[in-house]
Design brief:
Its cofactor is Mg(2+); K(+). It catalyses: (6S)-NADHX + ADP = AMP + phosphate + NADH + H(+); (6R)-NADHX = (6S)-NADHX; (6S)-NADPHX + ADP = AMP + phosphate + NADPH + H(+); (6R)-NADPHX = (6S)-NADPHX. With 507 residues, the protein is an alpha/beta fold. It folds into 2 domains: 216 residues, Rossmann fold; 266 residues, UDP-N-acetylmuramoyl-L-alanine:D-glutamate ligase, CATH 3.40.1190. 44% of the residues lie in helices and 16% in strands. The chain is built from 19 helices and 19 strands. The radius of gyration is 26 Å and the shape is elongated. The structure holds ligand NPW and potassium ion (K). The site of potassium ion has 11 residues, from β5 and β6.
């Protein structure tokens, strides 16, 4: 597990480290600059021309320190100062004084250094960026973009990227490598910022563990090795020890959704999986997944005899210890009753997806039945329908959108996008770092519901199950892409890779 921070949280950690712990600001800055220099030395040799663009806050202070360290090592270096002495931070002024005394080559914008630039260091704005970039700063950035440096190394975060949302604040500078300090910022984890950051190196610049006490760390991601969070299956057990997953899924022509969800639940470790679906899906599901129990209903009877249908649903819910509700259910009128009955009768975790969410969007009063056991897993289009916002508005701040929906109902909201967000009911927010665009295919979401259900069946509670499920799903996608490339992934192949990842847990 790796903590992630907002810009303000990072500033708090800086402040606490400097003021309460007593590590001087310039010491942190020196270590930050050394970390950047070490990346630069791995990228270019001393024949290269290096330009460092320095703003006049502490990000710029880092930049001047980088220029000084490279100058002392004999690199051909120019520092471009974007601000004036009057507006420079204390540390920036200290760095400038040192740089001037030891003869670092400096120019003041609008002047630019002569010759060409092989490696560009972006130290214009860090976590202090708090508004749109306009005027002179915009001009500077546009000029840099027209120069088209061969390699760009960003200091802490690419300038112009908002450290909390990853949004471009007017203009931003694209980096090949971003060296960030202490903790990765949300802005380099989220698109478009993630696309501007290149390879992100998290440098340890000496923040002691106590510094985290300055904030309540609430954003996190998983990384390899975290498979150990998945509960082991004890040796002395039977199929009932691992939970009974009820997959309420699959309407007309949509048996595949039920199949993929049930298969993924089994592959993740569930002991028993029952699919509750329409009668016409029986044969195909029974032959496709003979391991699953199949229970069926007739959609016309469900429509005509509501009381019997409700009774049938009640029995299914009593059997289950985890429920997946929604994949491929369709949008016929009885689906509303179905969703309502499950929500009112089940006292177990429910993963609500696809047409289950569609029913909620069409009948918002159903949210009145939400309990803390609910995990909703909308993609952006479904989220837009659920909230009445536009996809564009949600995209501007995925974390805020997911968090707001989860908090409104006290549930867990997994908002699926290129970077999936898990706004967990325990107030932590998971930002996914696995997965790839090959997974943007039909059936991928059905597999995710099954994986989460499988983890809950193993005994994880909703918050951990949702976060680990998203991560595991992405890891499976990465494993499939490695074998089959970016185009040919099939959702069923995700379920085939789950075992390779689960094996890491016991190694
Ligand atoms: N000791 C420490 O704390 C350490 C800090 N470290 C480094 O410091 C960085 C944070 O430094 P920082 O807080 O000084 O802010 P920074 O990102 O340099 O921005 C400068 C100023 O720009 C301004 N501004 C904002 N938006 C603007 C806009 N659109 N257009 C124009 N101006 C705008 C805004 O000032 P304002 O105008 O709002 O008063 C802001 O304060 C951090 O990312 C890391 O690299 C490391 O060395 C480790 C130790
Ligand atoms: K920067």
């Amino acid at each position: 597990m790796r903590n992630l921070v907002t810009g303000d949280q990072m500033k708090e950690v800086d402040r606490y480290t400097i003021e309460t712990i007593g590590i001087p600001s310039l010491v942190l800055m020196e270590r930050a600059a050394l970390a950047v220099v070490s990346e630069i030395e791995a990228l270019v040799n001393k024949k290269s021309n290096i330009w460092v663009l320095c703003g006049n806050g502490n990000n710029g202070g880092d930049g001047i320190a980088v220029a000084r360290l490279l100058h002392l090592k004999g690199y051909k270096i120019w520092a471009i100062l974007a601000g004036t002495r009057e507006s420079g931070s204390r540390e920036w002024l200290a760095q400038l004084d040192i740089a001037e005394k030891i003869g670092v080559q400096l120019v003041n914008f609008p002047e630019f250094p002569p010759g060409e630039c092989n490696l560009f260091v972006d130290a214009l704005f860090g976590v202090g960026l708090n508004r749109e970039v306009l005027g002179t700063y915009k001009e500077i950035m546009e000029k840099v973009i027209t120069y088209g440096p061969e390699i760009t190394v960003a200091v802490d975060i690419p300038s112009g990227i908002h450290s909390d949302s990853g949004q471009i604040m007017g203009t931003a500078l694209r980096a090949d490598v971003t060296v960030t300090f202490g903790f990765e910022k949300l802005g380099t984890m989220l698109y478009p910022g993630k696309g501007y950051s290149g390879r992100v190196v998290v440098a340890d610049i000496g923040f002691p563990a106590q510094s985290l006490s300055a904030i309540r760390p609430s954003f996190f991601t998983f990384e390899s090795g975290d498979t150990k969070e998945i509960p082991l299956r004890p040796a002395y057990s039977n199929k009932g020890s691992f939970g009974k997953v009820l997959v309420v899924a699959g309407g007309r022509n949509m048996s595949g959704a039920a199949y993929l969800s049930a298969l993924a639940a089994y592959r993740t470790g569930a002991g028993l999986v029952k699919i509750f679906t329409i009668e016409e899906n029986r044969t195909i599901l029974q032959s496709g997944l003979p391991e699953a129990i199949i229970a069926t209903y007739d959609p016309e009877e469900a429509e005509a005899d509501t009381a019997s249908f409700k009774e049938l649903l009640k029995k299914q819910c009593e059997w289950a210890s985890v429920i997946v509700l929604g994949p491929g259910l369709g949008r016929e009128p009885y689906v509303k009753n179905l969703v309502e009955e499950v929500l009112t009768n089940a006292y177990v975790p429910i993963i609500l997806d696809a047409d289950g969410l569609g029913a909620i969007a069409d009948h918002p009063d159903l949210t009145g039945y939400f309990t803390e056991n609910i995990i909703v897993t909308p993609h952006l289009g479904e989220m837009a329908r659920l909230t009445g916002s536009s996809v564009e508005a949600i995209k501007k701040n995925l974390i805020a959108a997911a968090r707001e929906y989860a908090d409104r109902f006290g549930i867990t909201c997994v908002l699926k996008d290129a970077v999936t967000i898990g706004a967990l009911k325990d107030q932590r927010t998971y930002v996914n770092s696995s997965g790839n665009s090959a997974m943007a295919k039909a059936g991928s979401g059905d597999v995710l519901t099954g994986i989460i259900a499988g983890l809950l069946a193993l005994g994880l509670e909703e918050s951990d199950g949702a976060a680990l499920g998203v991560w595991l799903h992405g890891r499976a996608g990465d494993a499939v892409r490695e074998k089959y490339g970016s185009y040919s992934l099939l959702a069923s192949q995700l379920t085939e890779e789950i075992y390779t990842i689960l094996q890491e847990q016991t190694r």
